[in-house]
């Protein structure tokens, strides 16, 4: 008997391109304009996880046909993707990750692991063949992830504080390190970052052991600036096929960000997570209700998978504002949750996984020509204007930089619209854009000659040339 997982996913799409669609739920994927996207999705799922397997035994040849069906005719408002795959711990996460990395928004999903096949197979060689054929190397990474070339990977985690990213980027700039890509999360006074850097002079990975040791030493000083020596963790390595979202979740979990702080406002709006028993079927039922956002399904499925739970049945429904998720789970040992302590831990970890990527604060998006020291300059400006970065996504491609910063004031309160206008005047309103809801007036004061000159200097050279004090000294 071979168990099979059946996953039905109903997709809309969110495009993080020039138009920056905030949320296009219930919109069918256009077969013409998105044909390549769908083809990549199907190829990744079939080749990496769902390829058909055939074997020959004493009873003759039989096939185990696993696959993915993408249907634009089943619904007028969405694209339906049906996935049939072998039961394996983490398979559901792999499928969701493929779709999430394609920037597809899953509006509905139905998961079931009750499908079974009965096969009269007694030949041990055939059974071994099937087992080996269906095993997937854990190091295998889906083909749709883009390669960013040679770089050195830096992982940082520690206690969060205002200006932390500014200090880190200033150190890297002063050491001649160029930040190619980065993602930074903060939650419950913890911070984690995955940064990809290159040698500024060569554009390649940093290999000199002495330089790597110096980078690690200076970054350690930055993380320990608040006196918390035990929480600072730095890892510098060569390129690895590691999913950034997974690593950030794992780093924040290791930092125990799921532990509530006394200063956290208990009345603030957050996700609702309930963990209860389903005694008649020997499952634990996990119910999640929260504000919908991109990559929410990936975050919840990853949290359950990383805590060694299997999803046997599940339903995911999203509206324009709220998302509802229901999972029937067991631990990988086959048992449901049996203690109140474990129930509380699952609840807290799911809440943390949801909140880490929540868009706290005002989103500022910067699009401009890339240059050395750009990240150090922009984060310094945000810091000097009293803003705290809650989350950031840094990317560079083809000589262009596109960075997103989610900011609040240093107390965690909403940003004063006047501060945003001031920053736009300093950097340039064509460079820095406000995304989402904002109280910034649509008509802002005209740029003065001084601000125009300042913005021009910002685009062409580093502020360190003006002798600014290094923040780590």
UniProtKB/TrEMBL annotation:
Q: Which key words tag this protein in UniProt? A: Repeat, Signal
What residue stretches are annotated with the ACT domain? 153-237, 363-442
**InterPro entries cross-referenced by the UniProt entry:** ACR1-12 (IPR040217), ACT-like_dom_sf (IPR045865), ACT_dom (IPR002912)
The residue range of the signal peptide is 1-23
Question: GO molecular function: any one?
Answer: amino acid binding
- A Pfam family the protein falls into: ACT
SUPFAM superfamilies, per this entry?
A: ACT-like
Q: What superkingdom heads the lineage?
A: Eukaryota
Identify the PANTHER family for this entry. ACT DOMAIN-CONTAINING PROTEIN ACR, ACT DOMAIN-CONTAINING PROTEIN ACR4-RELATED
Q: Provide the function of this protein.
A: Binds amino acids.
Report what the protein is called: ACT domain-containing protein ACR
């Amino acid at each position: 008997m071979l168990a099979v997982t059946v996953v039905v996913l109903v997709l809309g799409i969110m495009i993080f391109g020039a138009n920056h669609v905030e949320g296009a739920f219930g919109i069918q994927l256009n077969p013409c304009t998105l044909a390549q996207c769908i083809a990549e999705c199907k190829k990744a799922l079939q080749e990496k996880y769902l390829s058909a397997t055939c074997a020959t035994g004493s009873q003759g040849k039989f096939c185990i046909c696993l696959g993915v069906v993408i249907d634009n005719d089943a619904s007028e408002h969405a694209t339906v993707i049906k996935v049939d795959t072998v039961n394996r711990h983490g398979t559901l996460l792999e499928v969701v990750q493929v779709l999430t990395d394609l920037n597809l928004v899953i509006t509905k999903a139905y998961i079931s692991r009750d499908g079974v096949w009965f096969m009269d197979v007694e030949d041990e060689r055939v059974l071994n063949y099937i087992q080996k054929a269906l095993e997937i190397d854990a190091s295998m990474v889906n083909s749709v992830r883009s390669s960013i070339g040679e770089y050195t990977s830096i992982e940082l985690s520690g206690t969060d504080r205002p200006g932390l990213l500014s200090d880190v980027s200033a150190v890297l700039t002063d050491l001649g390190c160029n930040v190619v890509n980065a993602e930074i999360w903060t939650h419950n006074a913890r911070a984690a970052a995955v940064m990809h850097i290159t040698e500024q002079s060569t554009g390649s990975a940093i290999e000199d052991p002495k330089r790597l040791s110096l980078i690690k030493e200076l970054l350690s000083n930055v993380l320990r600036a608040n006196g918390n020596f035990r929480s600072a963790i730095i890892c510098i390595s060569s390129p690895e096929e590691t999913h950034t979202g997974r690593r950030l979740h794992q780093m924040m979990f290791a930092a125990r960000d799921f532990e509530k702080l006394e200063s956290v406002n208990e009345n603030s709006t957050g996700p609702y997570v309930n963990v209860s028993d389903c005694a008649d079927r020997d499952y634990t039922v996990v119910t999640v209700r929260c504000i919908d956002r991109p990559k929410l399904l990936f975050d919840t499925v990853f949290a359950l998978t990383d805590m060694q739970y299997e999803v046997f049945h599940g339903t995911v429904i999203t509206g324009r504002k709220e998302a509802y998720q229901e999972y029937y789970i067991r631990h990988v040992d086959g048992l449901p949750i049996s203690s109140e302590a474990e129930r509380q831990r699952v609840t807290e970890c799911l809440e943390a996984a949801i909140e880490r990527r929540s868009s706290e604060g005002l989103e500022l998006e910067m699009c401009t020509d890339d240059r050395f020291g750009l990240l150090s300059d922009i984060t310094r400006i945000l810091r000097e204007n009293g803003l705290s970065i809650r989350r950031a996504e840094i990317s560079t491609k083809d000589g262009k930089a596109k960075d997103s910063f989610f900011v609040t004031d240093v107390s965690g309160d909403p940003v004063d619209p006047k501060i945003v206008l001031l920053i736009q005047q300093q950097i340039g309103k064509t460079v820095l854009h406000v995304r989402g809801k904002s109280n910034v007036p649509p008509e802002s004061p005209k740029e003065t000659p001084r601000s125009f000159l300042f913005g021009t200097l910002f685009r062409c050279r580093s502020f360190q040339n003006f002798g600014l004090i290094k923040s780590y000294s």
